[in-house]
Input
Amino acid sequence: MNNRLELERVTVRFGGVVAARDVSFAVAPGEIRGLIGPNGAGKTTVINAITGAVPLTEGRVLLDGHLISGQASHKVSRRGIGRTFQHVEPFNEMTVLDNVMVGIGRSTRAPFWSAAVGLRSAYRTELATVAFATETLDAFGLLPYRDARAADLPFGLLKRMDLARSLAARPTLLLMDEPTSGMSESEADTAIATARSLAEQRGITLLVIEHNMRVMMALADRITVMQQGAVVAEGTPAEIQRNPKVIDAYLGEELADAGR
Output
């Protein structure tokens, strides 16, 4: 498994505002890394910097030792980096199954020319894509909604569909921005357990922003804490829960309660 992510002194400025300052951390292949902090801490800016959505002012981002910062977003994506957003952007008129099949992407589909001439390989590939998408839907408890239009789903189910779509694409590294927002506690527990299981099975490294501390403590192998654009702490969930600096700074009793 080769998908080690490294951030080295990443700094992002917007005019006179420093959104991220000297951010350095590494995510090991197969790891589930949490990224937490208060609103405005710079978490989403860091994800945007990794994906090429915003330019770095200083520093660099590497994947498997190869420089990816400074590349266009579509080139970063081709290296196997996927992303989910806080707000789901489904293909509303398509079914849930078709949304997930679109997410699987070009890597599992036969070339256009082979499909056009009706080659048997294209048909087999399409069947495999449907089967894989269906398997992923089943894992997230979405099979009953397989043929429903995405536009007809409530927000909680849309978030689950978005997780299914992202994991079905089999990225080597998936960046997740508040994947459980809008879900009930039970939905969040189930979705996160499924995401963790599928990531482990499919060799996907996860970097996750999540404000639900209880979910984060159950999901992450290690957690990086940001405040005012900078990294202020890093460690296992247990270490972060016991870190007086982190608790006193902004998380208060919520962090301590998350492990109970």
In short: The longest strand covers residues 17-27. Residues 106-113 have pLDDT under 50 and may be disordered.
